[in-house]
Write a structure and sequence with these properties.
The protein is of the alpha+beta class and 416 residues long. It has twelve helices and twelve strands. It is elongated and about 80 Å long. GO terms for molecular function: oxidoreductase activity.
Length: 416
């Protein structure tokens, strides 16, 4: 007699512990990288200065330390991995969910305390993963479309996912190891569709009781999922790596607004969106530098008269895109010297922008003292365009893009 207690009959002969474990192994390797790089991004925003979001995370706050400036491509690497690998893993996540669908129809849903814990971990794992994927993809596609703060929701959603991931891993790793050892991966890759057979019946209910003939081999299924992941990689990694793949980066359209000539690179927030007016950036503009005995006001001509420095540095955005450009300007440490600042613990940079979420940033002393940390006046041998921060912007190696403040109005060197 057929057991109908599992609900709809999901009859694919491919489902079983082995295939589920293969997808699980890939996620077990990839998801920790996504998790760690995401948490590093939070630290890079400087939670010790209250500028990371969310600001108040209670006992879930991460260790505070000054985000390093070397290597200069550090944030480009960590955030590129977080966004790029997160997108690449989406097909594997969906395949893993497909492989365990029969468990969603098991009745009764809870038969023991151990199974109850497994179910709770599964809810946190699947719910957290879907929330992080959906909101993350929407955030890199569109500009602040949510009715809630994305950064706060993404942070708390990440911890829900992490809790489910860790618990589920502890519960399922022994089963995954046994399942992977049950058959040879090389043998599976040599098995054609005609020779594909269901796995032996299992106690977890993944194997169909009355499987249909195979319409694709396990080799084909793995190739399909792997090909999907490879396609996502081609359509996304170009925004981080640059080169010939940049034009194919269809999954990261944010930052696809570009300038002209030497200023022809990504613009995440235009001057119009920031409500920067011509009167704010004309010849009357002055940079206010405070922290010494007396505040100092510097015009662009005075800044140009100071010793200049040129550096080829990346600028990387939280949405995953990055680019390397050649910047010229005044070292921040030279500005501190010009203002008579002898000792400081941090520097507060304020923009002409008034309404933006990141219209100011606090830099650590080490970030300011880096030899390539600049108040940039030029890029690629030309003046900054208005959209790229004219009359002056901050460029600090390895700093998140939004903290490389554009349209700088003032720099205050502070003792704490």
């Amino acid at each position: 007699m057929t057991d109908h207690s599992r609900g709809p009959r999901l009859r694919s002969p491919l489902r079983g512990p082995w295939l589920t474990s293969v997808f699980g192994l890939v996620l077990l390797i990839g998801l920790p990288v996504v998790i760690v790089t995401g948490l590093l991004s939070y630290i890079a925003y400087g939670p010790q200065f209250g500028q990371a979001r969310p600001g108040d995370v209670g006992w879930l706050h991460l260790p505070y330390f000054a985000w390093p400036t070397r290597p200069s491509w550090l944030y480009r690497l960590t955030q590129g991995l977080h966004v790029g690998l997160g997108l690449i893993l989406v097909p594997i996540v969906l395949a893993k969910l497909w492989s365990v669908i029969p468990k969603l129809f098991v009745f009764p849903p809870v038969r023991s305390p151990a199974q109850a814990l497994e179910r709770l971990s599964l809810i946190a794992l699947v719910g957290g993963a879907l929330f992080e994927i959906i909101t993350g993809v929407l955030n890199i596609q569109y500009d602040y479309i949510f009715g809630f703060d994305f950064y706060t929701a993404h942070y708390w959603g990440a911890w829900v996912f992490i809790a489910g991931f860790v618990t589920h891993t502890i519960l399922k790793v022994p089963l995954m190891v046994r399942s992977l050892r049950s058959r040879s991966f090389r043998e599976v890759l040599r098995t054609s569709r005609a020779d594909t057979r269901p796995e032996p019946a299992d106690e977890n209910g993944l194997v169909a009781e009355d499987p249909t003939p195979a319409t694709i081999s396990r080799r084909g299924a793995l190739a399909l999922v792997g090909g999907g992941a490879a396609l996502v990689a081609v359509l996304s990694v170009g925004q981080t790596t640059g080169g010939f793949l940049r034009g194919a980066a269809l999954l990261l359209p944010r930052g696809r607004s570009y300038g002209n000539g030497p200023n022809d690179f990504q613009i995440n927030r235009t001057a119009a969106a920031a409500q920067i007016t011509p009167e704010q950036t004309d010849d009357t503009w002055r940079l206010a530098v405070a922290g010494g005995a007396e505040p100092v006001q510097l015009s662009r001509s005075q800044l140009r008269a100071m010793p200049s420095h040129t550096a080829s540095l990346p600028i990387a955005c939280v949405e995953g895109w990055s680019t390397v450009e050649t910047w010229t300007g005044v070292r921040l440490r030279d500005l501190a010297d010009a203002a008579g600042v002898t000792a400081f613990a941090s520097a507060k940079v304020t923009s002409l922008e008034r309404s933006g979420a990141f219209n100011q940033a606090v830099l650590t002393a080490d970030q300011v003292r880096d030899a390539d940390a600049l108040l940039a006046l030029e890029v690629n041998g030309a003046e900054l365009s208005l959209d790229h921060g004219y009359p002056a912007r901050i460029i600090v190696p390895a700093l998140p893009g939004v903290h490389n403040t554009k349209w700088v109005q003032s720099i205050e060197f502070r003792e704490a």
